[in-house]
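From the thread on structure requests for the teaching lab: each student submitted one protein with a one-line request. Submission from student K.M.:

"Model Probable succinyl-diaminopimelate desuccinylase from Lentibacillus persicus, tokens only."
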Amino acid sequence: MSTKNELKDRLIKEVENDKDELIELCSRLIKIPSENPPGDSTEITTFIDQYLKNAGAETTWHESAEKMYNLVSTIGDEGGDGKHLIYCGHSDVVPTGDPAKWDFNPISGEIVDGWLLGRGASDMKAGLGGLIYTFALLKRLNIDLPGKLSLAVVPDEETGGEYGVPWLLENQIIDGNGCLIAEPSSRYNPTIGQKGSYWFKLKVFGEPGHGSLSPLAGNNAITNMIDAINEVRKLWDLNIEVPSEVQPLIDKSKKYMREVEKDRAPFQKVLEHVTVNIGKIQGGTKSNMIPESCEVEVDCRLPFGITQDDVTAFLHEKLDALGIDYEISRFGFRSDANYTSAEDPVCKSIVDNITYATGHEAYGVMQWASSDARHFRNHNIPVLQYGPAYLPSIHGYNEKVKVEDIERCCKVYIAAVIDYLYER
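Reply posted by the TA:
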């Protein structure tokens, strides 16, 4: 009987020997359009379903909304009392935008000079492909797992929607002792925590009138909105006390920003402040009419030490003091800051195997954005994120990822399954 490390070494070697199939799989995923919006995942789910069936895995489809399909498959000892690990990835990508601003076809999936090119290369079709390949390889090799491994492919992450991970969890279609999401990360630093999210629309109302009489007539909603925005932006200035139990994670994340992603060093303060992005504004009818309404959309990210309820109370206090007529409505991402302990077995299995596969020091850090990880934590499932990426290209033009990073992550994925499920 082989030892655990011998099994890991064998599987890592399998990935090395078969890496062309891995990269071809990731390329094929990029070639299948899956922008969200509109969110039609039919074609890409059909392709993944057939790939898994070709490996001998059984799959189930779950339509959570029109043309939004979740795909779930499980292998291993389903009748035993071993642990259950979930590997999760989203099949949707953000829109490609203006094709003329790309240096290559955004759905080409080409390999050029060691880079895989196209929309979703980094976020997160390369990571998703790595999970699918790992899952299928374990099935094809008939590896005797002392627990269960589930693969969940979800269609609705990029809009912060409710039809992917939260829908599966709330309907008790998936459950487990730990989860890895193959969201983009740096090579040696999975994200084990993330800031909260507070997206909202603020609408300010005024009274119309002839523009030639402003400011003596009517009530200008746009100028009132200017005052309101100035108050909203004061969220950044709040002095927030970070709880002592997460301060080590914040400190380590700052070190990461200074020493690893050095271009992020100027942004260390975001880990302890509420960020405020006035992302969209519209109001008024024409220049000679006093506007009767104005609306903005705001994206705030919340550090540890402040909750969504705290932000709501702050906004109402400041806006009520202005004496304006307004309303606030929430949309999109919404969560408090959340994390998984670095000592949790799922975190250790990934971090330890990054070092095992690469020989490089690895540690978990804080994410300043949000993802589906928050939903797993809301259901008491420890989770972290680790995936191949060229971080500057995410959600931008000319998205790409290094082929060597895809292979490295896949080696970590397959070794981590063994460590996690064999460790009682």
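TA comment: Residues 88 and 152 are 5 Å apart (CA to CA). The chain has eleven helices and 18 strands.
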